[in-house]
Write a structure and sequence with these properties.
about 290 residues; alpha/beta; two-stranded antiparallel sheet; 10 helices; alkanesulfonate monooxygenase activity; Lucif-like_OxRdtase_Rv2161c; monooxygenase
């Protein structure tokens, strides 16, 4: 099981130093969250908390995840980065393809695109995109982005996007992996159909086990049972070596964690304290050899 550091809702000025420390102590990747803006009044409930409330406020710091990946990639050499998850629905697929290809090239193919639809009607409408039929539009967006990133002269004529022959150079020298987020049946089917993996929001170990089972069945339906597939998990109730061993047995391939939160510190803890948390976590889980026993 791999370990990924989440840098959600932390100060922007700490990101580069945290990436360097995460690589130094042995983390595999950094998960980058996405939020365009904070609307004072939300038309829809946030889907990943019991009461629908948002876990952040107007002053919570966010940075564009693609820009963050490029900045952190410039000071690291082995660490991977992926969005967890980028909200596709409010964006333009051609512009996004250019950005994703640029990050992939600048990081030496150390970038993966975690994608979701987006939950907030305001993010669609205020960016000039209809909220209606968002799922079908995102499916077509993924087709467009994959087509363009594969390189060469391409064209696309779909229901939502239409363009004649074009080329973006340079194309990434290796395919950019796509990780699909979401807990609904539609999202799981999308992940099994086109994804290189699935990424969760906050879930219990039991919920993860159930969802991974569903995904494995769906992959088999699409004749993809033997295709490498990542299960990226944010688990809220499996801690300690025994808990991590249970997650690995469940099928989790990538455990997304925030070590300083596990140590009882806050998002705004001092940078040095966060670095100490990273080192302790790595000693306990990454270098302890528990996976070899």
């Amino acid at each position: 099981m791999k370990y990924t550091l989440s840098v959600a809702m932390g100060p922007v000025e700490e990101l580069v130093a945290l990436a360097q420390c995460a690589e130094e102590v042995g983390f595999d990747a950094i998960a980058l969250p996405d939020s365009l803006f904070f609307m004072e009044k939300a038309a829809a409930d946030y889907p990943y908390t019991p009461d629908g409330s948002r876990m952040w406020n107007a002053d919570t710091p966010w940075v564009d995840p693609l820009i963050a990946a490029a900045a952190m990639g410039a000071v690291t050499s082995t660490l991977r980065f992926y969005t967890n998850v980028l909200k596709l629905g409010s964006r333009n697929p051609l512009l996004l393809a250019r950005q994703v290809g640029s990050v992939a090239n600048l990081t030496g193919n150390r970038f993966g695109l975690g994608v979701g639809i987006g939950w907030a009607p305001e993010e669609f409408e205020w960016c000039g995109v209809p909220y209606a039929r968002r799922g079908a539009r995102v499916d077509e967006m993924i087709d467009v982005i994959k087509l363009v990133l594969a390189g060469g002269m391409v064209e696309f004529h779909g229901e939502f996007y239409d363009f004649d022959r074009l080329q973006m150079s340079p194309a990434p020298s290796a395919p950019v992996p796509f990780y699909v987020g979401g807990h609904t049946d539609v999202a799981l089917k999308r992940a099994a159909r086109i994804g290189d993996g699935w990424t969760s929001a906050m879930m219990t170990g039991a919920q993860l086990a159930e969802t991974i089972g569903k995904l494995q069945a769906l992959l088999a339906e699409h004749d993809r049972a033997d295709v490498p597939f990542e299960y990226q998990a944010v688990c809220i109730d499996k801690f300690g070596v025994d808990g991590h061993r249970e997650l690995a047995a469940t099928g989790v391939t990538d455990n997304i964690v925030i070590p300083w939160m596990l140590d009882g510190l806050g998002f705004d803890a001092p940078l040095a304290a966060k670095q100490d948390s990273l080192k302790r976590f790595a000693d306990t889980y990454i270098h302890s050899g528990w996976q070899e026993k």
